[in-house]
Design brief:
The protein contains 13 helices and seven strands. The protein has helices at residues 3-11, 16-24, 30-51, 58-64, 71-89, 101-113, 127-132, 195-211, 220-231, 291-296, 300-303, 349-375, 387-390, and strands at residues 236-246, 265-272, 278-286, 314-316, 319-321, 324-326, 337-338. The longest helix has 27 residues, at 349-375.
Length: 391
């Protein structure tokens, strides 16, 4: 039987969807018929499987059952299928849990204060091994000639580093306007709504109660002994003083921040011990206030009247002396607050010696302020951030 007769007989026995696919490209041999029929059946099976994914739609069921599908039915099919297909493909990515700023600060600080694990010491080599394999620390560096000196008349004295200027939005009174919050008086990098403000709040929340804390009743006796061993002053707990930090004051209350030195500032009242640790701080008072006024409204003024400063007692020259806080002439004398003798009249040699010992012991608070300004240099400049962020 010829190939054409075989192909004609096979075409009469196939299903209508397969026949429609074979008619487009009619086969001439039996092998071509089998190959084309197989490809068409696989394509139809894949199409049916795709339509079975959405069995709830009427238009899809009609297409799957090979019924007549009108143009309006096709449009409805597109409207029903496309949104679901896009939602299935465009799955929103799941974000990993983000740690808070306070948690990041706590982890970084714990990692910084934790000492690294000691590395195992290498086995000591013999003298012969050391001579045969010298350490790189003792290898002489290659000789590098020094560059020739340039005469002073050939130096470029007119060359200056480029000056970077930034223009800010300003009010009529020349005060800058913050780009972030729109409030006048400070710039973006000093804004309390910025990331630096959140970082400062996290540092205060996590570290303040761990590193700035008052001496407890159980630690008082041992603390006084250590203070005397370092400073030579008996019954001392710490030194109290105030420090002014320059700021850009708010326009509404600028006169309140104008201090006696002639510039705008806020006051930091601090109690420092013999190891230059801040035991108590009170920051945010306007520069116009006196140190004794800030002390009167602080918590430490009530603490020295409580049971914390009632023991241990010591007898010095037949006088019972409680634990003392050393201060200067700006503060008022109190049972637990010791200051210098006045210089208005003549003072005796013993009083001069007492003033010298107290001043020598009280230097710790001045040194602590100096270390603070040396470590954080921006405190010595005029800070343009919000007052609430500084306090």
């Amino acid at each position: 039987m010829p190939e054409a007769k075989k192909v004609r007989d096979l075409m009469q026995g196939v299903k209508e969807p397969v026949f429609a696919g074979l008619v487009r490209n009619p086969p001439t041999t039996v092998d071509e018929f089998i190959r084309e029929a197989t490809v068409t059946e696989r394509a139809l099976r894949k199409q049916y499987r795709h339509l079975d994914r959405l069995p709830n739609h009427t238009a899809v069921n009609a297409a799957a059952q090979n019924t007549a599908v009108s143009e309006s039915c096709l449009r409805q099919m597109i409207r029903e299928i496309m949104p679901e297909e896009f939602r299935a493909l465009c799955v929103p990515p799941t974000k990993p849990p983000v740690a808070s700023v306070a948690e990041i600060v706590r982890q970084e600080f714990t990692q910084a204060v934790t000492p690294p694990a000691p590395s195992p010491e290498p086995h000591p080599a013999s003298y012969a091994d050391a001579v045969r394999h010298p350490s790189p620390l003792f290898v002489a560096a290659p000789f590098q000639p020094r560059p020739a000196a340039v005469p002073w008349w050939q130096r470029d004295f007119m060359r200056r580093p480029p000056v970077h200027r930034t223009d800010y939005w300003r009010m009529a009174d020349r005060r800058p306007i913050c780009f972030r919050c729109g409030e006048p008086g400070h710039i973006d990098r000093h804004c309390r709504h910025s990331d630096s403000g959140q970082f400062c709040e996290a540092v205060v929340t996590v570290l303040e109660h761990e590193w700035i804390k008052m001496v407890t009743t159980e630690e008082m006796a041992r603390h006084i002994q250590e203070f005397e061993a370092v400073t030579g002053f008996r019954q001392g707990v710490g030194a109290l003083d105030g420090c002014h930090f320059p700021i850009s004051p708010p326009k509404e209350h600028a006169t309140d921040y104008y201090n006696y030195k002639g510039w705008y500032s806020i006051i930091l009242l601090a109690l420092v011990d013999h190891r230059y640790r801040f035991r108590y701080i009170n920051v945010g008072a306007p520069g116009r206030c006196h140190d004794s006024h800030v002390f009167g409204y602080s918590q430490i003024s009530n603490a020295i009247k409580g049971p914390l400063f009632k023991a241990p007692l010591a007898t010095i020259a037949e006088t019972v002396v409680p634990p003392l806080i050393l201060c200067d002439q700006a503060f008022s004398l109190a049972p637990s607050l010791m200051k210098l003798f006045g210089h208005r009249g003549k003072i005796s040699e013993s009083e001069k010696k007492f003033n010298y010992r107290l001043s020598s012991a009280r230097r710790i608070v001045e040194n602590a302020f100096g270390r603070l300004e040396a470590r954080f240099r921006f405190t010595a400049k005029r800070m343009g951030c919000h007052i609430a962020m500084l306090a």
